[in-house]
Design brief:
This protein is of the alpha+beta class and about 675 residues long. The chain has 3 domains: about 240 residues; about 120 residues, no CATH class; about 220 residues, no CATH class. It is built from 11 helices and 31 strands. The strands form 7 sheets. Strands 13, 18, 20, 21, 22, 23, 24 and 26 form an 8-stranded mixed β-sheet that branches.
Length: about 675
């Protein structure tokens, strides 16, 4: 892990700073987006200007240079819309790796690639400066720019820079790597999988953004080279028809190769994204996590109080399932602690006498710690502001020992937050909104899984300005007309499990809602899926939207016994669940925490990539650190744009030129 920091540092700058002053174009770029069409048609415009006449002719600043102004405007718009993205991701770099020991080949490749991107960007900025009509430049300056751009004898010419870029992308010089893993996308995929939650993007998004950077650099370099040939031709230094055609062929070959590499890797790359834990000490309840409280909690009770006849003829182990506190015998310790008004389970005998440190009233704990006379400790012995209470078992009639037992209380009282909303959280399909993120929130003792929504645009893009969380309407389990099993689910000793599933939507569909249902005795995730017209950026067949989830009943349980409080873990959580597993919410370990805290917690951090995208699925996972209670966390699967990548082939260029020629001929005929 240590060697990955330079990879991340370079990558953060690189993938979110493609050619064009740190521009990251929308996720439909070079698929079917308007940006693609503009850039490619500009490329055709430039080629048409260069190839249209083999004789030197003066440049037309009123007509031909409109192309350069168009791309300059386009770049400025992209810069403005994406500036914040670099800042956001830059803040998360430190989450990836704490330190590193040495460099590796991927780091060096990314640094070299970044250098090329920046050099092309600098040349592009120079070209824009030359095109400013308010500050005309000398012909010599134009000539020098053009020659520096296309001079094959110079290692920093755009021609050579793009050749070197190709070598870095394809990995043609990486002879030590096995075939099929030499290209930069394959190497990046392997790196991204090991730090899945750290980039603010899914690995699939990360690969695609790097591809955008490379493809944008290729296109802009091509436009500069063709523009340079055009300048040189107007100055009578040749017609450069052969050279211009060669650059076009190289562009098409390189883009086609790059796109094929990306498609191959994207098919093997995860679209999953979930959140890393915050730094140790940075957890905040109801901000980074929420928790159920007093669900099944450690509780000290004398066996005499769990009988109706004041006898102690049994032992603690007899009281295993669903007993009650029937009385408070002689107002002993039972009168000094909150009564368990529910059911009592799994009692055990530890020692006859103890010192109990009670927790402050009104909180979620009953005890801070319990210290037994035999040296056994339950919880962490710290200061005890309210003072300890000495609690002693006793003998009755010489042969009955009335023991204090350590049990578990299931009491749905006012201090117990144990309710989960079964109401749906959905995007506004009528307004063409789709789900772009998930998070857990808790309102009035009720846990909700809610969605973030955003406006769907052509090419699968999302309008950043429309992103918003769909705030649930607060309700409580005591509200009039609210029903258990319909509006909410109550966790209890027998009904406290949750399924850990990934739910995927079919190709052509996106997620438009989430909801919990109760399947058997377990909470189970449902997704609403709706068909999407990718090109138009429209949801279709709204009435045909369907809810889907996993019906798997053969599952394995993740045991969570003897665990400590999750937020005390010495390291950040890692995924510890797989498909078709489940877990049960329950108490922390007796020795670690006196069984006072309900685990796992729920990760309440927003799970929404820094680059919003439609979702191809979502799920629930368990993440944690050994010996600590961990978190149930939402995860999302970002939409796979790889299937929409299209090659700007020779046929496309030829068809575009032919269409323009036909249109011009038709126009001339009409006028005649």
């Amino acid at each position: 892990m240590k060697m990955l920091l330079p990879v991340v540092t370079v990558l953060v700058v690189l993938v979110l700073a493609p050619a064009g002053h740190g521009v990251a174009i929308g996720p439909g770029w070079l698929a079917l987006s308007e940006t693609t069409k503009v850039l490619l048609r500009i490329a055709v415009d430039v080629a048409e200007m260069q190839l249209g006449d083999s004789k030197p002719s003066p440049i037309n600043f009123n007509q031909d240079l409109r192309i350069m102004h168009t791309i300059q405007t386009l770049s400025a718009e992209m810069r403005e819309s994406q500036t914040a993205m670099v800042d956001i991701l830059g803040q998360r770099v430190h989450d990836v790796i704490e330190s590193f020991g040495h460099r590796n080949r991927l780091v060096e490749r990314l640094e070299k690639l970044y250098m090329i991107v920046r050099l092309v960007e600098r040349r592009e900025a120079s070209m824009y400066q030359l095109l400013r009509t308010d500050t005309p430049v000398e012909q010599l300056t134009l000539t020098q720019f053009a020659q520096a751009t296309v001079d094959v004898s110079k290692s920093d010419s755009v021609i050579e820079l793009l050749h070197n870029l190709e070598l870095l992308v394809t990995g043609s010089t990486q002879v030590l790597l096995p075939p099929g893993r030499q290209d930069i996308f394959s190497q990046l995929n392997e790196t991204a999988r090991s730090v899945l939650c750290s980039f603010g993007l899914s690995p699939q998004q990360l690969i695609y953004v790097l591809y955008e950077s490379i493809a944008t650099t290729e296109l802009k370099g091509y436009i500069m080279m063709q523009f340079s040939y055009m300048l040189l031709k107007t100055q009578g230094q040749g017609n450069f028809t052969v050279e211009s055609q060669a650059r076009r062929n190289e562009l098409q070959t390189r883009l086609a190769r790059t796109q094929q590499l990306v498609r191959n890797v994207m098919n093997q790359t995860s679209g999953e994204y979930w959140r890393c834990d915050p730094d140790r000490g940075a957890h905040r309840e109801n901000v980074t996590y929420v928790q159920f409280t007093r669900l099944v909690q450690g509780y000290v009770e004398n066996e005499v109080d769990m009988t109706t006849d004041n006898t102690c003829r049994e032992t603690c182990s007899h009281y295993k399932y669903g007993h009650e506190q029937h009385q408070c015998y002689k107002e002993l310790y039972c009168s000094q602690q909150p009564k368990c008004a529910g059911r009592i389970y799994d009692c055990e005998y530890i020692d006859s006498d103890m010192w109990i440190c009670p927790a402050a009233p009104g909180g979620t704990r009953r005890y801070e710690y319990i210290e037994y006379e035999n040296g056994e400790m339950r919880g962490r012995k710290q200061s005890c502001p309210r003072g300890t209470t000495k609690v002693d078992s006793w003998w009755r009639w010489l042969f009955w020992h009335c023991s204090y037992c350590f049990c578990y209380c299931d009491d749905a009282g006012r201090h117990s937050d144990r309710y989960v909303s079964l109401r749906e959280s959905v995007s506004d399909m009528e307004q063409n909104r789709v789900v772009t993120g998930l998070r857990f929130v808790k309102r009035r003792q009720m846990v909700h899984l809610i969605v973030q929504q955003g406006l769907l645009l052509p090419g699968g893009e999302i309008a950043n300005s429309t992103l918003e969380w769909v705030v649930p309407k607060p309700f409580t389990h005591t509200d009039k007309g609210v029903r258990d099993g319909h509006d909410y689910h109550t966790l209890s000793y027998d009904r406290r499990a949750i399924d850990l599933d990934d739910v995927h939507v079919p190709p052509g569909y996106v997620v438009t809602g989430v909801q919990f249902r109760v399947l058997g005795a377990r909470l189970n995730l449902l997704l609403r899926m709706t068909e999407m017209n990718f090109t138009a950026g429209k949801l279709v067949g709204l009435d045909a939207s369907i809810w889907s989830g996993s019906l798997e009943t053969e599952r394995t349980e993740i045991p969570l016994k003897y665990m400590d409080v999750p937020t005390l873990a010495p390291a950040k959580s890692v995924p510890m669940s797989t498909q078709n597993q489940y877990l049960r919410f329950g108490p922390t370990g007796g020795r670690a925490d006196a069984a006072q805290t309900t685990i796992p917690f729920l990760d309440a951090q927003p799970v929404s990539p820094v680059r919003p995208t439609p979702l191809a699925g979502a799920g629930l996972m368990y993440k944690g650190v050994p010996k600590y209670g961990g978190f149930v966390a939402p995860k999302i699967m970002t939409y796979n744009f790889g299937a929409h990548i299209q090659d700007p082939t020779d046929d496309w260029f030829a068809a575009e030129l032919e269409a323009r020629s036909s249109a011009a001929a038709g126009g001339g005929s009409d006028s005649g």
